[in-house]
């Protein structure tokens, strides 16, 4: 249930300084289901944040790294100006998993959030922007937090790739895996969310529920409902980890 702002006054939560950024409302709502109780909607310049009664703030940041970065930056800035900056940003949602390491319905926690295709194609092959002498291609969540999140949820840890184009062929999947041997999953927002968080000195975590294999595009084989359910279940188990982190940072 979403309450208008005036009805939501007085809600308190131990996780108000944790922001969970998803791509779309369906993912945001799946996370919200892990935290029973009313939800208050707050409209900010450039973002709409949903505040749960017993959990973190939720943001449907939009699809793709650019919009996700812009929306996350707006929410982070508004919170900082309000005197209650976020202590942690979690990028969450469903995504593709690299078989056989990340099967359908499983959870993946990123120990590295990497822009898979940010760079240049050359005659010698692909070069990430770091090898061109500028930028960054990887953000690393706090190691202890990623490990605790994986242990609590039963997730595997590895690299989660951020792509602007969802992989749809076996050849592309093979190319990505060869370029990023530790990759377990791909999504479209993690690197953008991480860039926004890093710009304001806020740590970031990414968790993905696998809805489809990375490879040939076959919508009939996707298990979106199962992945959203896994996301809800995962956040139910993740809550104590987030609360501990939030309290440690107070």
TrEMBL record:
Keywords assigned: Glycosidase, Hydrolase, Menaquinone biosynthesis
SUPFAM superfamilies to which the protein is assigned, alphabetical: Purine and uridine phosphorylases (SSF53167)
CDD domains the record matches: futalosine_nucleosidase_MqnB
Nucleoside phosphorylase domain span: 59-218
Pathway, per record: Quinol/quinone metabolism; menaquinone biosynthesis
Keyword Hydrolase: yes
EC id: 3.2.2.26
Pfam families: PNP_UDP_1
Gene Ontology MF terms: adenosylhomocysteine nucleosidase activity; methylthioadenosine nucleosidase activity
InterPro entries according to UniProt: FL_hydrolase_MqnB, Nucleoside_phosphorylase_d, Nucleoside_phosphorylase_sf
Group of enzyme by EC: hydrolase
Catalytic activity: futalosine + H2O = dehypoxanthine futalosine + hypoxanthine
UniProt keyword annotation of Transmembrane helix present: no
One GO cellular component term: cytosol
GO biological process, one term: nucleoside metabolic process
NCBIfam families: fut_nucase, PRK08236.1
Family: Belongs to the PNP/UDP phosphorylase family. Futalosine hydrolase subfamily.
Functional description taken from the UniProt entry: Catalyzes the hydrolysis of futalosine (FL) to dehypoxanthine futalosine (DHFL) and hypoxanthine, a step in the biosynthesis of menaquinone (MK, vitamin K2).
Protein name: Futalosine hydrolase
The species this protein was found in: Streptomyces sp. R17
Lineage: Bacteria, Bacillati, Actinomycetota, Actinomycetes, Kitasatosporales
